[in-house]
Amino acid sequence: xxxxxxxxxxxxxxxxxxxxxxxxxxxxxxxxxxxxxxxxxxxxxxxxxxxxxxxxxxxxxxxxxxxxxxxxxxxxxxxxxxxxxxxxxxxxxxxxxxxxxxxxxxxxxxxxxxxxxxxxxxxxxxxxxxxxxxxxxxxxxxxxxxxxxxxxxxxxxxxxxxxxxxxxxxxxxxxxxxxxxxxxxxxxxxxxxxxxxxxxxxxxxxxxxxxxxxxxxxxxxxxxxxxxxxxxxxxxxxxxxxxxxxxxxxxxxxxxxxxxxxxxxxxxxxxxxxxxxxxxxxxxxxxxxxxxxxxxxxxxxxxxxxxxxxxxxxxxxxxxxxxxxxxxxxxxxxxxxxxxxxxxxxxxxxxxxxxxxxxxxxxxxxxxxxxxxxxxxxxxxxxxxxxxxxxxxxxxxxxxxxxxxxxxxxxxxxxxxxxxxxxxxxxxxxxxxxxxxxxxxxxxxxxxxxxxxxxxxxxxxxxxxxxxxxxxxxxxxxxxxxxxxxxxxxxxxxxxxxxxxxxxxxxxxxxxxxxxxxxxxxxxxxxxxxxxxxxxxxxxxxxxxxxxxxxxxxxxxxxxxxxxxxxxxxxxxxxxxxxxxxxxxxxxxxxxxxxxxxxxxxxxxxxxxxxxxxxxxxxxxxxxxxxx
Length: 628
What we know:
Elements: H1 2-11, H2 16-38, H3 47-68, H4 80-107, H5 117-147, E1 153-158, H6 162-173, E2 179-186, E3 195-196, E4 199-203, H7 209-215, E5 219-222, H8 229-239, E6 245-248, E7 266-267, H9 270-273, H10 284-290, E8 294-298, H11 303-312, E9 319-324, H12 327-339, E10 345-349, H13 355-365, E11 369-372, H14 379-384, H15 386-406, E12 411-415, H16 426-440, E13 448-453, E14 456-458, H17 464-473, E15 478-480, E16 486-487, E17 489-491, H18 492-505, E18 511-514, E19 520-521, H19 522-532, E20 543-545, E21 564-567, E22 573-577, H20 583-594, H21 602-612
Parallel strand pairs: 1-2, 1-5, 2-4, 5-6, 8-9, 8-11, 9-10, 11-12, 12-13, 13-18, 14-17, 15-20
Antiparallel strand pairs: 3-4, 6-7, 16-19, 18-22, 21-22
C-alpha cells in the first residue's frame, strides 16, 4: 500500500518552486562547505561574516536559476542539457558573487562582504558537482522506486563487438526496459573470460542448456552485424533449442535515424535468417525513370504486384493503373491507397486473357511502362490444369506483348520465376515459353522487353512460410515434401525493388537474374519455425515427409543449361547470357501452342511445350511418358 502510494506520488512532476527551493538550499550548503574546505574543516573563520554573506548567496542563486530556468526541467528525465543548465547557473552565481566582491573591494562599502577568491572557486565547483549529482540521484531513485521492486529479465548478448556494446548501453541506461545483462557470448575465443564493462564474455561453445538454467537466463539477444545468413541460421538453430527466448537486433540500415530503438529488438523471424538487407527507395535514378509517367501493373492484387505498386506510388508518377481479375483483393488494395490519400491510382477489374479488354485499357491510358506480374504460379494446380497455365502464362503474356508493340509502350517488364529454369513442371515450362516469346519480340519495335527471374518470396500467397505458420497454429504436423528439398528465398519488398532496378537499367532483351543468397533447406526451415514459435520438435509439433508433389524439384536453379551470367552495376542483379536459338522456328511453335488454349487436350499442350523447351523434363508427373 505504502509502495503504491509512493509510486503514485513519484509519477507526478515535482512543482517548479520546490525544485528551485531545493537548488537554493543546495547552494547555501555548498557555500558553507566551501568555507570548511578552505579552512581544513576547522571553525577558525568568522562565522558571523558567513551568516551575513548567505543572504547575498541566496539572491545570487535566485537570479541565476531564474535566468537559466534550470528548475523547469523534469528531474526524472534529466539529461545532458539539464547538466549544462545547472553548470551555467553555477557560473552566473560565481560571476555575481565575484562582481559583488570586486565592487566592494574598490568602493570599500562593507568588509563583511569580502569573500576569499578561493572560496568562490571551491563554491563554483561544488555547485556544479552537487547540483548535477542531485538530479541524477533523484532520477535513479525514481526508476528504482518505479521498477526496482519488479523482477528484472536476465539477458545474455550474443556478440561482444560494437553492436553488442551498443545494445548493452541501451539496456542498461533505459530503466524502462527492466533488463539485466549478465553475460556476453562471442565466437571469438580470444575474447573469452575477458570482461566488457565488468560483464564476463563466454565462448559460444560454453552456452548449453545447463548454463541457461544455472544462470536463469530469460533472453538471448543476437547483436551481430554483417553476418553470413548460413552462420546466422546455425546460431539460431542452436540457440532456439535452449530454454530461453531468442531475439535479434535488426541491421543498422533499419535503425530509426541511425539510432537503435528498444522496440526494434524483437523475436527472431524467418526473414532475419535470410540476411537480406532492408530496401531503400531513395534512388534518384528510379525517381527519374518513373517521373510523370503512366505505369500499368498486371496481377496488381497479388503479393508481387501489390508491392511493386506500393513502391512505385512513392514516386511522382502521373497515373498508376492496377489491373487484376481478383475483385475482392483489388478492392482491398484500392481502399488501402484511399486511406493513405494517394490520388493517382486507378483500379481496374480485367482479365489479361481478354485481348479486346486489354487493348481498350492500353489504348485509353497509354502506359509508358508495363509491369507484367499476373500469372498462375502453383505447381501442382498447373500440373492438373495445363490449359489454364497455357491460357494465362503464355497466351495472356503474348496478348500484352503484342499490344505493347502495337501501342509503342516504352518498357515491358516481365516477372518470371526460377521454375522456368530447366523446368520439371508445366507452370515453369509455361513461364519459360513466355520468356522466349518476349525475347523474340524485343527487336520488333520500339518497346524494350525486360525479363526478371527470381525464386520464392517470403510471405507470398501460397508460399511455404504461411503454410507452415498455419500448420503450427493448428498444432501440426508440418508437411515437407522431401527431407533434402531446398529453395531460394528473398523478401517481397527486396524482390520488388530489384524488379524496379532491373526495369530501370534494362536496355531490352535481357533476362535479369537476382542474387538470392544461399539456398535454404526446407526441413531446417520447418525446424526453426517450430522452435521460434516456442514449441519443441517432435514432442509438440512433428514434421511429416509427404513426398514430392507432381512436377516438383528437389533443387531450384537460376540459370538454364547453356546459360551463364554477366555482372551489372548493381551487386545483386546479373544478366543471364541466353543461349542462341532459332527465333523464327520457335516463334512458329509458340503460335501453334497458343492456338490450343481453348482445347482440353492436355497431352497435346504439354507435348508442344516440351518441343519448344527441350530442357523441360517432367518430374514425378504423369507427363513423364511424353519425355520419351
